[in-house]
């Protein structure tokens, strides 16, 4: 019995010197915490490992982070309710700004007047399609194309976008694949990565000219009056 106790005491000291806490030693040896304290009290306080320091920091900051997360979510919910329903006029103006930010535009060296909108955000696509509908663009005037890295789940992405816009996968144009570069560290990976969807309005030259005119009208209206 004395020998067993001596062995436990020696083992407790080894564990303490290895940086173990009292609770960890108690759990491993199955002895009382008071015994462990008595056996190792003359040993210096062990330096905490990097992992232990990380866990301590996480435990200290976890309540603060949770509080901040709750505040962020509440702010977003409040802001969402501030919008309410949009009038046709509001959607009309939002759509113009949306297109002029994300849609294709003519350039001095290329005067192609095409209405093509490309985005990876499903919400942006939905708002854009609602805007096109407001303008009287019919579903059969739209052409959809998925654009995605070749290393991604192409089939899943095609299904996702087709479901979002309400067409069969077979109705999508041939997917554009971006070559995979192993040297590039991409962060847009995983199940949530679905590439982009390009939405083109067929025979959209006249619509493009109107969009450009609308945008310049907004610019003029936003200028301060003399």
UniProtKB/TrEMBL annotation:
Organism superkingdom: Bacteria
Protein name as catalogued: Resolvase
Species this chain originates from: Streptomyces eurocidicus
Lineage: Bacteria, Bacillati, Actinomycetota, Actinomycetes, Kitasatosporales
């Amino acid at each position: 019995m004395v020998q067993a106790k001596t062995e436990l005491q020696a083992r407790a000291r080894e564990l303490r010197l290895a940086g173990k806490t009292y609770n960890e030693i108690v759990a491993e040896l199955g002895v009382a915490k008071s015994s462990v304290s008595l056996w190792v009290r003359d040993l210096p306080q062990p330096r905490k490992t990097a992992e232990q320091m990380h866990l301590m920091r996480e435990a200290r900051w976890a309540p603060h982070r949770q509080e901040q997360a709750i505040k962020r979510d509440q702010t977003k919910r409040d802001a969402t309710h501030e919008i309410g329903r949009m009038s046709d006029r509001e959607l009309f103006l939002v759509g113009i700004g949306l297109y002029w930010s994300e849609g294709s535009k003519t350039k001095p060296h290329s005067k192609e007047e095409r209405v093509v909108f490309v985005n990876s955000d499903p919400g942006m696509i939905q708002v854009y399609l609602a805007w096109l509908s407001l303008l009287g663009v019919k579903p059969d005037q739209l052409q959809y194309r998925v654009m995605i890295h070749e290393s991604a789940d192409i089939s899943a992405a095609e299904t996702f976008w087709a479901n979002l816009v309400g067409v069969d996968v077979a109705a999508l144009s041939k997917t554009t694949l971006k070559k995979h570069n192993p040297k590039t560290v991409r962060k847009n990976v995983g199940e949530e990565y679905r590439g982009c969807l390009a939405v083109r309005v067929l025979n959209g030259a006249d619509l493009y000219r109107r969009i450009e005119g609308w945008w310049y009208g907004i610019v003029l209206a936003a200028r301060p009056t003399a």
